[in-house]
Amino acid sequence: MPIHSVARRASARPGEQHRAHFDTQWVWPSIAVISICGELDASNAPDLPICGQNARASGQLVLDMSGVEFFGACCFAGLHTLNVHCAGDNIDWVLIPSTAVARVVDICDPAHALPVSGDLPAALSKLRNHPRQLQLVNPGR
After folding, report:
1. In which domain, by residue range, is 83 found?
2. In which residue ranges of the chain is pLDDT below 50?
């Protein structure tokens, strides 16, 4: 399965070595893998829901946050917003959390509404084997 990178990880400027860096790769024409590393806090939290715009409508997205070293609780709203946008755009998605991300998600999402997986092969398998549930539409409406 070829991987096509459409974004390169930004090199850190002096004093920004811990800032979050986003990298998008296409592992299939309709599957985007967005890898985030570094730190996510209030200063860059708005970037989180925007990163989902790299996914194609009716496609699939893996948000690999296994390289995130710090994840502020304020960033959870960005994950929730991403979840809502993906549902609205008919995009299946899966989150791969780091320990820091998992800690906040466990606290802020006790109902486990966000789709979470342990690593990239498991996330791709989850997308392939458990696609979103389609709803029956009443043709009389």
Report:
1. 21-128
2. 1-14, 134-136
